[in-house]
Amino acid sequence: MAGTTTGIPANVTQGSQTKGGVGESMLRPDGTLKVTGEFAYSSDMWHEEMLWGQVLRSTVAHAEIVSIDTSEALALSGVYAVLTADDLPAAKNYGMEYQDTPVLAYGKVRHHGEPVALVAADHPETARRAAAKIKVEYRELPVITDEASATAPDAILVHENRGDHHAGHVPHPNIVHRQPIIRGNADEAAKKADVIVKGEYTFGMQDQAFLGPESGLAVPSEDGGVDLYVATQWLHSDLKQIAPCLGLPEEKVRMTMAGIGGAFGGREDISMQILASVLALRTSKPVKMVYNRYESFFGHVHRHPAKLYYEHGATKDGKLTHMKCKIVLDGGAYMSSTPSVVGNASSLSVGPYVVDDVEIEAIGLYTNNPPCGAMRGFGAVQACFAYEAQMDKVAAKLGMDPVAFRQKNAMEQGTIMPTGQPVDSPAPVAELLRRVKARPLPPVRQWESSEGADVRALPGGLSNTTHGEGVVRGVGYAVGIKNVGFSEGFDDYSTAKIRIEVINGEAVATVHTAAAEVGQGGVTIHAQIARTELGVQQVTIAPADTQVGSAGSTSAGRQTYMTGGAIKNSCEIVREKVLEIGRRKFGSYHPAWANAELLLEGGKVVTDGGEVLTTLVEVLEDEAVEVEEEFRHRPTEAFDLRTGQGNGHVQYAFAAHRAVVEVDTELGLVKVIELACAQDVGKAVNPLSVIGQIQGGTTQGLGVAVMEEIIVDPKTAKVRNPSFTDYLLPTILDTPTIPVDYLELADPNAPYGVRGIGEAPTLSSTPAVLAAIRNATGLELNKTPVRPEHLTGT
Amino acid sequence: MRVNFTVNGRKQEADDVWEGESLLYVLRERMGLPGSKNACEQGECGSCTVRLDGVPVCACLVAAGQVEGREVTTVEGLADYAKHRQDAHPGGGCASGACGTSLQDAQQWKAHSAGGATDSQTGEGTELSPIQQAFIDAGAVQCGFCTPGLLVAADELLERNDTPSDADIREALSGNLCRCTGYEKILDAVRLAAARQGEVV
Ligand code: FES
Ligand code: FES
């Protein structure tokens, strides 16, 4: 095309809108690959002559390691390497916030399932058999499993010599972090209360249980480095932790995102990345590593189990007077993201309500239980479970409708958080509750059709143990508040590289970021944003890798906001540069180049009046424009360590649920009939995936309510149910219809007005289900999950 | 040992198979057919669902030796299987050998094809079965790890029952876990595929 443009549009037409932009329901670009089985997940990696890595894990929770004998394992034919901590090439510890986690245990093991030794062999079964032949001698130590055993004056310290920056502020070395929040005077305000309600709540340990196991392939490279293909939520955070453990500069560790089978926070921490790399460097062969489900339960951090102690007061006319609470989060053996979870739990402990006088304390413990860290909802989930139970209790004591009571106390735009930070964007809490309540209820006793009872619709389903004699219905409500993005002064940013060029006679944009597509649909909206901003139809999403700047984590509901913002930012600069070229080439032919507002639409340069000046193809010819830019959200600040005051959060997300349950009081079985959700999403960039995210998050909350829990033996700190046989997940039979109603009240500070979506629906669905079960049975039920014995008193 | 069986209409043989190796391992690691997924390897999640002589099974629970002389259909062969559903010999509808993935092709599977979610390389033009298309259209795919198993199970349901009720769908898919979607859109997808099938007839 070079040299053929005239610069004078042959005919002036209306600019055609680009299809598939922001706000349209778009199908996933990777959908076809995923339905044909061609999409390469991290466990699908394959390389000629690759070896299989296998971890040997600790069989006890707390012990000194007396000796490790690897000789028998090494002697097995097909075994290429057997390594212990002594064989590690460089740094022995890693960690996101603080490097307290050993790659392989040395000296001590601090939790059940901790990695102790590593094997590489030519067949996974050989590797497993070799691992079983490693002899480890332990001298067991007493286990620390709860607040009492952790903070006893003579308690054994989980970490003897803490060097992290929280160590100086905590009341006991077995407390990872403590965040109090004091605002107003709770004791004074309590005097105005007509009713005071106290409650004690227990939140069980939930697992992310993503279906795609931890896995990947490490390939040693000729320069002595390693190419790593793994599924992770944040490539650059991994890289920072991996390189020092391999003793390599970051440039020699090249990471490429492999297909991710779900994450939900469980891939924020390192799992097999360092282990496979160490084996690959040691054997000079590609090493594939795939955790089986049993190992997966030990291979990632879980949601913090919690104990929550709450007190609320209210006046007769239904106004909350004060709130006091103490939240104890069990962080397990290593720090992971416990300090941030503590910060979230304390700063969001009041919920989406106006309470001026509060006395809050949240702590995170070091124990010998499994390490806990990030999971969808991140500290806000546990608090929501407790404050929503409290709201129902207070309302009941006042004889008020639970929804009306919540609405009366609901925060709105302008409300001051307990941290002193004003809520400066829409906060439609009362409206979300109104919407779920206004929805017609599903018909009662729906198992009784004209053709008789359909047992499949009863609690217990096909087991045919009842025909509905003991079944009662209950309805419950809950609402929650979640912060979006990284808080407390973290320098949170994302990077996007955008390129535009002419390929086969068409303008094509390429979006290159390091953002993890964990299933949430980031890849779809990245293309939508590029289409909207650049007016091109064809968008290529380059595979995520460390050849481009950090995108930050796919977590905290931040990726649409942050990487979406980075793509928008970079596209705006690309657009300017493209128009610059256009002005240079054609500016003298048409005055609009100089004095009109110019847009890119439908592959053309258009004036705001709709006049087409030229096409992108004619502007670009064989030039390419490429821009790599970062996006930052507005800065936040740390919470004061004594008062908890500070503008710690960027944005809030709100969701409300109404649960309708049927409970068989004789069998102790619950069937959730419907779990309606209303959420403010700010702006639905892709409505189809917005609904999918809300339904998925809702179902994870439902799981906690009625079945999901990692059970840790309190005497030995051993995990009792590390399998899908014993850790129960909701199936399609356990999951009701989930009608979704979303609002789009733009956040004026966010790109397109978006609000993080993925996390908020996980908060309120659990307390809504619990409220519904309480409503049906009249029982107290202060624990997750609700088990049959809790309902039948057996 | 050596195992001979038919996969997606093609004769395959696997050598040096260990006693105790599962069908899932043989498909994924020896045949280069990683479409069947490995989420639990203990029969609890359904991610590895394939059809063995037409019957849906968890490939992780089938010993490789058990498939000697039998026919296996995986998600990779689903479109072809659906196309040849009317044939007397399900899955064998490709005598010419033009369908399915050859062992050689399959073993081209390399790390470098990783994660390639590319808007302009969406596999457009790939022929899909009605249930595959419906999963895409209904938004039933998120991370997609559960998808292959669900597709095989749902396709078998629709073969048996072209107008399934919601209760039928839930029952048929109750062995398949999905952690991402909340299942609502999976129900939508099966309803959509059933409705489209109805229109065609
Ligand atoms: S992998 Fe076979 S059922 Fe889970
Ligand atoms: S498990 Fe991720 S889409 Fe079903």
Question: Count of DSSP helices of chain A?
Answer: 19
- By DSSP, the count of extended strands of chain B is 5
Distance between the termini of chain A: 81 Å
Report the sheet-strand fraction of chain A: 25-35%
Strand order of the largest sheet of chain B: 2-1-5-3-4
CATH topology of the domain at 436-480 and 651-792 in chain A: Aldehyde Oxidoreductase, domain 4
Please identify which CATH superfamily of the domain at 436-480 and 651-792 in chain A we are dealing with. Aldehyde oxidase/xanthine dehydrogenase, molybdopterin binding domain
Strands side by side in the biggest sheet of chain A: 3-7-1-14-11-12-13
- Write down the domain tally of chain B: 2
Radius of gyration of chain B: 16 Å
Judged by helices, strands and strand pairing, the structural class of chain A is alpha+beta
Poorly predicted runs of 5 or more residues of chain A: 1-15
- Return residue spans of chain B where pLDDT drops below 50 for at least 5 consecutive residues: 88-103, 105-121
Structure description:
The complex is a heterodimer of chains A (about 800) and B (about 200). Chain A is of the alpha+beta class. Among the domains of chain A are: about 30-40 and about 495-630, Aldehyde Oxidoreductase, domain 4; about 45-140 and about 210-260 and about 265-295, Aldehyde oxidase/xanthine dehydrogenase, a/b hammerhead (Aldehyde Oxidoreductase, domain 3), CATH 3.90.1170.50; about 435-480 and about 650-790, Aldehyde oxidase/xanthine dehydrogenase, molybdopterin binding domain (Aldehyde Oxidoreductase, domain 4). Helices cover about 25% and strands about 25% of the residues of chain A. In chain A, the strands form 9 sheets. In chain A, strands 3-7-1-14-11-12-13 form a 7-stranded mixed β-sheet, with helices on both faces. In chain A, strands 9-18-17-16-10 form a 5-stranded mixed β-sheet. In chain A, α9 (about 340-345) links the parallel β17 (about 320-330) and β18. In chain A, α11 runs antiparallel to α12. The longest helix of chain A has 28 residues, at about 560-585. Chain A is globular and about 80 Å long. Chain A starts with about 30 loop residues before the first helix and ends with a helix. Chain B has about 200 residues and is α+β, with helices and mostly antiparallel strands. Chain B has 2 domains: about 5-75, Beta-grasp domain (Ubiquitin-like (UB roll)); about 80-85 and about 100-200, DNA polymerase, domain 1 (Orthogonal Bundle). Chain B contains 7 helices and 5 strands; from the N terminus they run ββαβββαααααα. In chain B, a hairpin with a 2-residue loop joins β1 (about 5) and β2. In chain B, α4 crosses α7 (about 185-200). Classes of the chains: A alpha+beta (about 800), B alpha+beta (about 200). At the A-B interface, α1, β25 and α17 of A face α1, α4, α5, α6 and α7 of B. Bound molecules: FE2/S2 (inorganic) cluster (FES) (2 copies). The site of one FE2/S2 (inorganic) cluster has 12 residues of chain B, from loops. One FE2/S2 (inorganic) cluster binds near residues 39, 43, 46, 58 and 60 of chain B. Chain B: Pfam families: Fer2, Fer2_2. Chain B: It comes from Streptomyces venezuelae. Chain B: This is (2Fe-2S)-binding protein. Chain B: Keywords: 2Fe-2S, Iron, Iron-sulfur, Metal-binding, Oxidoreductase. Chain B: GO terms for molecular function: 2 iron, 2 sulfur cluster binding; metal ion binding; oxidoreductase activity.
